[in-house]
Every structure is written in structure tokens, then in C-alpha cells.
Write a structure and sequence with these properties.
alpha/beta; 39% helix; 10 helices; 242 residues; 5-stranded parallel β-sheet; putative 2-phosphosulfolactate phosphatase
Amino acid sequence: MDIKLYLTPGPSGEIDLESKTAVVIDVLRCTTSVCAALMAGARGVIPVTGPGEAGDMWARIGSDMSVLAGEKNGIRIENFQLGNSPSEFTPDSVAGKFVVMTTTNGTTAFVRTCKADLVLSCSLVNVSRVARRVAGENRDMVIVCAGREGQYSIEDNICGGRLIDLLICEHQREVTLNDAASLAVLLYHNSKATMKKAVAEGEHGRYLSSIGFARDLETAASVDSMPVLPVMKDGRLILDGD
């Protein structure tokens, strides 16, 4: 299995997606919130690139069947029902509805990988479930880290390293890695004993804490606490098997 990890999404044309599984990682907080939404009974999460597109999609689906969720620079977008904190995605807020979501980093990564044969949403909260599906597919994979505003983020790479480590050690897959993937594995091994601290002390973690979202860091760093598998189908992230 050939695995290439991308430290940031970059232009979509730079990533070879043909016949590959694409795994999108945005630990803080998009892919964590996707898991929270689906666990809370959302019918699906629809990632879009900006507030205007989100509003148009919400209007087409209807306010009775969908909710708007999104943030800009960590803060809930004006006139949206929800922001991007995992704690906001409860049965009362999303059960039975589609979540139309736009975030600063994560949703763009989904849009840029949508042409892959299989697109999965991964975070620390569901990394073992993702590894199981990837191992079952047993084909080449690209891991796209959302990063933060085009820059490297430590928490996404720790998660990518954990995913690769599971494929090698637990699922016994033979892999070849690009340099970024090898770096992610090393980072994971160096930080696995203090993972929550590493997430909290990263640049993005410090920023979210400074604007009042310290509790989200604890949630996002809780490994395998939301064992669901969001799969992209027809532009929607839904539970595997739905």
C-alpha cells in the first residue's frame, strides 16, 4: 500500500486521487465535529467552501430539513445556527437533519478530495475505525491534513501518524511512505504518551483556548471516543452503510 500524506490540502490538481482512498483530517475541529454530528443522528454533513454556498444549499434543502454550521477563524458565522464546536452537535440540534457545514480549513479539504474513489473523514476520535476500513480496502491512500490557513498543524499530523501506525502494527499492512507520512509516524511515536498536551499546546490549540474553546481540545484529543465512519457519497458525509 502506497501512502502519501499532504501537510496541507494545496491546490486540488496537485494531489493524484485516481483509484485511491482519500482520508481528510482536521482534528481541530471539522472532522471531529462531523463525527459528533453523525453520532447525534444527523442524516449527513454536507461540506461546502464558504458561507454563500452554504446558505444557498440550506435554502435548497429547506430549513426544516437542514441546519447551517460553520466558523470563520474559530467563531460561529453570523446567522448560522451552529458553529464548529463538537459540543454543539446534539440530538436536539441535528437529529434527522442535514448539516450544511463550512469551516476555515476542513471543508475545503473535502471539496478538494471529492474525486477520489473513496473519501473518509478522520480524526483522533475515530482513527481506529478509519484504519479498519482503509485496511479492508487495501489500496493506495492519500492523507490530506487540513492544517490551519494553509499552514502545517501538529494535531492533524499526529492523527495521520496514528492512522499509519495502526495500518502497520495492528492490520499488518506493508506500506511505502512519502517523507511527510514518515515524519507523521515519528511525530506520533514521540507524542503518543502526551497526546492531549501536544494538541493543546499546538498553535491552533492555543488559539482555540484563547477564544474560549479549551473544552473542545479535550474532546478532539480523546482517541476512539466516537467510533463512527463518515464516508463521502454524492457530496455528503454519511455513516458507512447508510
